[in-house]
## 1
Amino acid sequence: MDFDIRKIAALAAFDINDADISRFQCDMEEIANMVSELPELDGETPIPDAMELRSDCVQSYPADRSELMKNAPKAVNGCFAVPRTVEY
């Protein structure tokens, strides 16, 4: 299967240099081959134990807010500040 790595990179907003094109081409071909080897399913028969999920448990973390905010690139009024993603 042939992939247009530059187009995929552009759709993903990913900067790619010429030296990495062949490596990504090989990676995409390996992924496609792996997917083509997956078994066909009829969609009606349930898969027993298809996925084991871990149990979630809440644990407290002994840190105060000021210690956690030291990792924030930008904070406003004690909260993490992030770029606006929705324009109105």
Note: The two ends are 42 Å apart (CA to CA).
## 2
Amino acid sequence: MAVTTHSQSPTEPWTAPLARGPLRGDVSLPGSKSLTNRELVLAALADGPSTIRLPLHSRDSALMVEALRQLGVGVDEVAPGLGETPNPYGPDLRITPAAMHGDVRVDCGLAGTVMRFLPPLAALAVGPVTIDGDPYARRRPMHAIIQALVDLGVDVTDDGGGAMPFSFTGTGSVRGGSLAIDASASSQFVSGLLLSAPRFDEGLHLTHVGDRLPSMPHIEMTVAALRARGVRVDEPAVGEWVVHPGPIAARDVTIEPDLSNAAPFAAAALVAGGTVRIRTWPTATTQVGADLETLLPRWGATVTRDGADLVFDGGVGVRGGASLPGLALDLSRGGELAPALVALAALADGPSEIDGIGHLRGHETDRLAALAADLNGTGGSVHERAEGLRIEPAALHGGAWAAYDDHRMATAGAIVGLVVDGVAVDDIGSTAKTLPQFPELWAALVATGDAVA
């Protein structure tokens, strides 16, 4: 399938730095995007002010903050309290709920969490609301959330295509009750409805009726966040949730580091060799990035916990002559890890099949087509399948690597570029979506190999 670049802000190509020696990396990552944007929504609907500590500051979270402010919610930057750890990546946030008003046009950018989480919340406002985003975002699946609002009694106006832009006029309440949706294209449709459901008049009895439900850990994250704020959520069957109406408790919460954003850094140990330490890796979490702890050892990494940190040891790595095995993986639990793991598979000595990721065709770009195009353009042998990719061993070479405005495509290019000279990512700035500091953090990591080369 052909892929076209849709970058809105072209930049000079960024040539991925080569690893000259084994790494001795020590990486502190900003907060989880998934957790930050869920907690922002819940705090906006809570029964009092909440403080979000160590939140992510990125394009996706900034879009969520701006949308809440447009609706009348107070979002203020605050310094950490006495004895609290300061956030090196930005201030904490104090969220003050308010009666929400319309007369707004919400810009979702390319943020799936904004375009799927905001509409049910904004339907609780009074007045007209328009939901729109970047040009490519208008191609992302939205029909399930639009139809859900209609079925809940919200008068939605769109062009019939089930996509942005669309508009509705909020009346200050949503009926709620029983609702069936097909969330096969994204678990965010379920999470977006569950997050606002306690404020619906009748709560919500939501049933998924599609053939598949990808990224279940993200729904589990949503349910855990609701329960932590005192909301009663029942799960009578797989793919069925009952959220009871009632208050959402105000709560101060500390955001975990983004473990999905840890994927390229952890994978770097297998490619360049050496060790990469990820700081403050939680011992228990709902983040799907935690699967890296069991996935990377299948390629030969040794993973150990050292106090609060997790250390990934790649031995001599591909750079030092190690052979990565071909693997068969089902990533339906966590497709967001796929770009990094496909990059690893492209450097393996055996064929790999990575399946369960057909829904990635509806992400920031068609990630299956984009990965195939970039890797094949640099000498790879990647074949698209209905639900995934088959990656054959091939000798990669340098060349252009398109990011397609997709942060995970950009970081996949960086992984390959550790051992393939001349991989030129056309828009490394796309990483600002969830990790604005990526170029600096990556350069610092690779430099640890230069020091021992």
Note: The longest strand covers residues 126-132.
## 3
Amino acid sequence: MTTDIQRLNQRLASAQPSATYRIIDRVAERRAQGAKIISLCAGEPDFDTPGHVREAAIEAIVNGHTRYTQVAGVRSLREAVAAKFRRENGLDVTWQDTLVCNGGKQVIYNALAATLNEEDQVIIPAPYWVSYPEMVQLCGGEARIVTCEANTGFKLTAAALAEAITPRTRWLILNSPSNPTGAVYSREELQALAEVLLANPHVLILADDIYEHLIFDDQTFFTLAQVEPGLAARTLTMNGVSKAYAMTGWRIGFATGPRWLLEAMEKLQGQQTSGASSISQQAALAALEGPKDFIHESRAVFQSRRDLMVELLNSTPGLECVSPAGAFYAFASCSGLIGRTSPGGRVLHTDEDVAHALLDEADVAVVHGSAFGLGPYIRIAYALDDASLHKACEAIKTFCSHLR
């Protein structure tokens, strides 16, 4: 029986832990038991942070950049962030229009916590990153999920957006390239969404562009405020260094948007965590101002891995996978496996059953698509070397070939 002293905040009590981290915890348990697990579930590049960035961090320590910074970030980094948004995204902003946070996740949470009140709704296209609905719920809002099936490329259409908007709609969250599907919105698709948003001036937009530089086949990346400047006054454009520069552990995210919103987010952050790590900020500055060779090289590697994964998955009985346009995830339909029985005797009623059976019986860790709002799918992160990817796919294929 739970005692009164153990009573939790009601919003937290009803929130769900991250499905991704639950799988990661299971991987750790299996490895502790001696199993050799190939993990395809973590959403981070497998490359080392570029050398000049690491050197900048060491230099920052040696030079004494080890004290508190301004809550919104040091001015030099904010100037570099503004320059990045001008150079790469065509946004007319200055350093005063930016905010630096402890990772991209904090950018999103700060924005929602600063603006949501009871009964406010947030439109979230599904499949979605697992944290979006939980953040909305923790901040007192209501997630309004709009399912985007494979026939739309897993992307939100203008018609679906128009139907989802209500007088209670506060935000639309748009992630491109997408986690978990790798879907990328074209200029034309964004313009169609923009027309709907222009007709609904009460809706704020959060553009999560964290995978911006992981876009394949020589496509051009566009963000919503770039395509429709008329929306800039109510769009928060979020990015960071974690994916593009293999800096997930450095915890630096940043954003640009209307100053009233940034000021509210800064106030919240000042009472929550204060500024980001001073050393990480210096490293992020080196990343944004330094050479960009790493981005081009890693993108080419990820595109090659994508091609490999799509080919191997589509040759596996019961799996189907469209080729993702960006990020480093394959979102494969496993509908052909549902209802069958694994070699170990597990009946695969759901995609979650598939994910757990693959971990327990094939020693391969993936995340079930229903955790991202759409099943039956599995999300496979191909942020591993080719040899490991080949080995994992062979194990998946053997598992699927022996289903009853």
Note: The chain has 14 helices and 13 strands.
## 4
Amino acid sequence: MRKSRFTEAQIIGMIKEQEAGMPTAEVCRRHGLSPATFYKMKARYGGMEVSDAARLKALADENA
């Protein structure tokens, strides 16, 4: 699987920017990604905090 160029913390930060009221197109332009990629990341990491994402990664590594 291809490694993401963004960390979980960066992805969650982008999602929080969009939820705070910044238009999605502006968030995507600032960070250099497509809206489709943004919405895929939002579906995976939406509603999470950084600690939740770290715990999820640790569980995935443990199960691998």
Note: The chain has a mean pLDDT of 91.
